[in-house]
Write a structure and sequence with these properties.
Blueprint (H helix, E strand, L loop, with lengths): L3 E7 L3 H14 L5 E7 L6 H11 L3 E5 L6 H10 L5 E4 L10 H10 L5 E5 L12 H14 L15 E4 H7 L10 H8 L6 E5 L14 H16 L5 H27 L4 H24 L9 H29 L4 H24 L23
Parallel strand pairs: 1-2, 1-4, 2-3, 5-7
Antiparallel strand pairs: 4-6, 5-6
Bound molecules: guanosine-5'-diphosphate-alpha-D-mannose (GDD) and manganese (II) ion (MN).
Guanosine-5'-diphosphate-alpha-D-mannose binds next to strand 1, strand 2 and helix 3.
Length: 379
């Protein structure tokens, strides 16, 4: 029986795999453990290396995900793939102190605890490996996490922890699975108060390779918080789509002022130009934020834009028709107008999410895969 499964999410961590396994071997002597790497089709061949090691060491295996990215979802899928009673998550880059795993396991074995967290911010811990800019962001993110995490954690951003399989399976169906912060997700999603303990450790500098943390991670974090705050009632994506739609009204009126009053176009001509401009900025904003995970690039932007125009034109017709129909039924003008706009937005959202930003089919791996995300900054 395997007692401890160590889940290691990886993206381009080839040169860290062997050093990490050597350290786990030493730290976990006498414990029945296994290591599950969850690799998102790293172009550097991380998965192939792990698979080769797994060929001679049955404790080591790899889950390969194709056409997917995401640290949290990788951890979740790794933890789902084992029968061990205790599940740990650790980064591949040796920043987390693997010698803490033994103490974490001992704490869980005593019973009465669901999660043991490695903390950089309690007495005895140290975030040494973090730059001062990262430290500031980490502090701000910790404050924000109080919106959704009710437990008093010193290091809710930690990516280093161990939990019981029982607790994980109690919680897994409620997880959001979005972004980088799996621990926050676990605490915010658990159907009951989490019994936790924290153990201090010293955060080290990254061994090989580069960090995958970029500005997108910040956006994903806010997304996770929003999903935990109100995602049960309305999808975060839809809220973002509507907010961007509202910003389009402002753009439209500004463009109208510019072309009608400023440039002296006829009202109808200025309206047409303003509509096109507003739809275009809406498209670009949605492509950057709302559909950041399915972002259209290169020539596909033009096709996407045209389908967006078409969908929104039909949405406008629906909007007018519904409003006019209700108005004719003596519904007050403001309510009729509002309901027309709501139905138009739902149409626009539904249609563009299926056609404009259709789920992509996985592409064959190539050298350009590494460029799929903005450049990562150094740890
Ligand atoms: N499968 C998969 N998919 N793995 C990923 C992805 C992804 O999209 N993005 C990152 N990883 C892997 C990396 O390969 C690495 O093993 C681990 O997740 C952490 O990524 P880093 O890029 O090294 O993150 P970090 O050092 O900035 O931050 C980490 O440590 C912090 C302190 O504990 C993360 O774990 C943070 O969540 C954590 O706060
Ligand atoms: Mn790291």
């Amino acid at each position: 029986m395997v007692e401890l499964a160590v889940v290691v999410p990886t993206f381009n961590e080839r040169d860290n795999v062997e050093p990490l396994l050597a350290r786990l071997e030493r730290a976990l002597a006498g414990i029945a453990w296994e290591a599950i790497f969850v690799d998102d089709d790293s172009p550097d061949g991380t998965a192939a290396l792990v698979a080769a090691i797994g060929g001679r060491d049955r404790r080591v295996r790899v889950i390969r995900r194709i056409g997917r990215r995401g640290l949290s979802s990788a951890c979740i899928e790794g933890m789902l793939a084992t029968n061990a009673d205790h599940l740990a998550v650790i980064d591949a880059d040796l920043q987390h102190d693997e010698t803490l795993l033994r103490g974490m396991l001992a704490a869980l074995r005593e019973g009465g605890t669901d999660v043991v967290i490695g903390s950089r911010y309690m007495a005895g811990g140290d975030a040494g490996g973090l730059s001062s800019r990262r430290l500031m962001v980490s502090r701000a993110a910790t404050k924000l996490s109080r919106l959704v995490v009710r437990a008093d954690l010193t290091d809710p951003m930690s990516g280093f922890f161990m939990l019981t399989r029982a607790f994980f399976h109690e919680t897994v169906r409620y997880l959001s699975g979005q972004g980088f912060k799996i621990l926050i997700d676990l605490f915010a999603s658990a159907p009951r108060p989490v019994r936790f303990r924290e153990l201090p450790y010293v955060f080290r500098a990254r061994h090989a390779g580069t960090s995958k943390l970029d500005t997108l991670v910040v956006l994903e974090y806010l997304w996770l918080l929003a999903d935990k705050l109100f995602g049960r009632w309305v999808p975060v994506r839809f809220v973002l789509f509507v907010l961007i739609g509202l910003s389009g009204v402002v753009v439209h009126l500004a463009a109208l002022a510019l072309f009608y009053r400023g440039a002296g176009l006829s009202f109808i001509a200025a309206q047409v130009v303003a509509t096109l401009i507003a739809m275009t900025t809406n498209f670009l904003l949605n492509n950057t934020f709302t559909y950041r995970d399915r972002r259209l690039r290169g020539g596909r932007i033009v096709r996407g834009l045209l389908s967006f125009y078409l969908a929104c034109a039909i949405g406008a017709v629906i909007n007018f028709q519904v409003a006019e129909f209700l108005f004719a039924l003596a519904v007050p003008w403001l309510l009729a107008g509002f309901l027309g706009a709501v139905l138009g937005s739902v149409w626009n959202y539904g249609v563009t999410s299926t056609f404009t930003w259709a789920r992509e089919r996985p592409r064959p791996a190539g050298p350009d895969r590494a460029l799929d995300r903005p450049a990562a900054d150094q740890d």
